[in-house]
Amino acid sequence: MLTVEQVMHALRDVQDPELHKSLVELNMIRNIRIDGRHIQLEVVLTIQGCPLKAKIKADVEHALREIGALSVDIVFGAMTPEERAALTQYLKKNSTTETGMPALLRPDSGVRFIAVTSGKGGVGKSTVTINLAAALARMGKKVGILDADIYGFSIPSMMQIADKPTMIEKTAIPVVSHNVKVMSMGFFADDNSPVMWRGPMLNKWIQNFLANTHWGELDYLLLDLPPGTGDVAIDVAAMIPQAKEVIVTTPHNVASHVASRAGVMAKHTKHDILGVIENMAYYEESDGSRNYLFGRGGGERLAERLQTDVLARVPFARPEETTGSSVYDEDSVVGELFRSLAEDVLYKDAQ
Ligand SMILES: Nc1ncnc2c1ncn2[C@@H]1O[C@H](COP(=O)(O)OP(=O)(O)OP(=O)(O)O)[C@@H](O)[C@H]1O
After folding, report:
1. To pair with 276 at 20 to 30 A between CA atoms, which of 42, 75, 176, 224?
2. What angle do CA 247, 249, 254 make, to 5 degrees?
3. Backbone torsions φ then ψ of 73, nearest 5 degrees
4. Cα–ligand 1 centroid distance for 61 (angstroms)
5. Closest by alpha carbon to 342, among 112, 138, 159, 111?
């Protein structure tokens, strides 16, 4: 005969797929009934009709069969408003300090911040952000992206994310894509979004995104900044002085010249610069020769001006290097280049 203690013990390791915490810790397991090796129980979900029901069911069944259950009968229920409020408090406790400061920003949080910036638009800043994030995640790092390009957000569409974050009261659970937790204003661009995630809080939006998102454990948070040296860059500099910057340019003279302003700004705000990434550096012809469509040397010139290094020269990707999204396949030429870039970033960041 199995016992309630054994069942609870087995379920300690089963996590809510969005909150990444144990169902037991989140108080989501109720009404356990045991008849020999037959178990009945209730799983109380944060919202009715949770799309992850099937995954939770499979994980619970698996855990209980491991301890010898012959049948597992699961009934799904939904939390009451009071229970959801209690859960929000619990999640908030982990995401903000007593002073309301996002816990991620505490010096002892262990989270490293990388701001990806550029002088001009369209040079591949978002492409670099998502591919560097995906490469770090493939290396086993816990990674998040904050799409800080508040008016020109593009990360959800570039990663082909169709889902929206689940909201528990006012806390957003980031959407996970390619093992990366993603938050973007793009998720809240329609009129159904909670007011606090829209206009009135714009001046505090970075803090809002950091504090009202349940990021869970993170090693790296990448920020996709808007191009140029505007308010957002200044806000980020003030709020996240420990962020390190990666500056993206094309080889083109003008792009590299404009990018240098973003670099000078980083120096001014005392953000460390990890290095320069020259994107769209060349197109590799089928015979292996390189066609330098945008000229040459922009990355190097920028790196010299900022007294830093060129971390990578990313060629034009071919359509077959991705299965549709702008995250390039792991074993494609560009995918491999981003893996080696991620290794360099880890190395430089540790110095
Ligand atoms: N190395 C590359 N190979 C092929 N296409 C690329 C590459 N880098 C970027 N692109 C494409 O160029 C376009 C612009 O890239 P991206 O959106 O990353 O630039 P951005 O600097 O973030 O732009 P914005 O400032 O508008 O946000 C996208 O369609 C992207 O898929």
Report:
1. 176
2. 130
3. -110, 115
4. 44
5. 138
| Ligand 1 midpoint to CA 248 (Å) | 11
Q: What's the chain's Rg over C-alpha atoms?
A: 23
Q: What domains, with CATH codes, occur in the chain?
A: 4-79 (3.30.300.130), 103-350 (3.40.50.300)
| Minimum-distance ligand 1 atom for the alpha carbon of 123 | 21
Six-digit token string for 130: 């998502």
123 is in an annotated binding site: yes
The owner of tokens 């229970």 is 83
Q: List the residue whose alpha carbon is closest to atom 1 of ligand 1.
A: 316
CA angle 14, 16, 22 (to 5 degrees): 50
Task: Give the number of the atom of ligand 1 that is nearest the alpha carbon of residue 224.
Answer: 22
- pTM beyond 0.95: no
DSSP lists the bridge partners of residue 303 as none
CB 143 within 8 Å of CB 179: yes
Q: Give 72-131 pLDDT, tens digit per residue.
A: 999 998 888 888 888 888 777 766 666 667 778 887 888 999 999 888 788 999 999 999
Task: State in Å, rounded, how far the first CA of the chain is from the last one.
Answer: 56
In angstroms, the CA 26 to CA 79 distance is 11
Q: Is 48's pLDDT higher than 90?
A: no
The distance from CA 171 to its chain's CA centroid, rounded to whole angstroms, is 16
SS3 content of the chain, % helix, strand, coil (to 5): 40, 25, 40
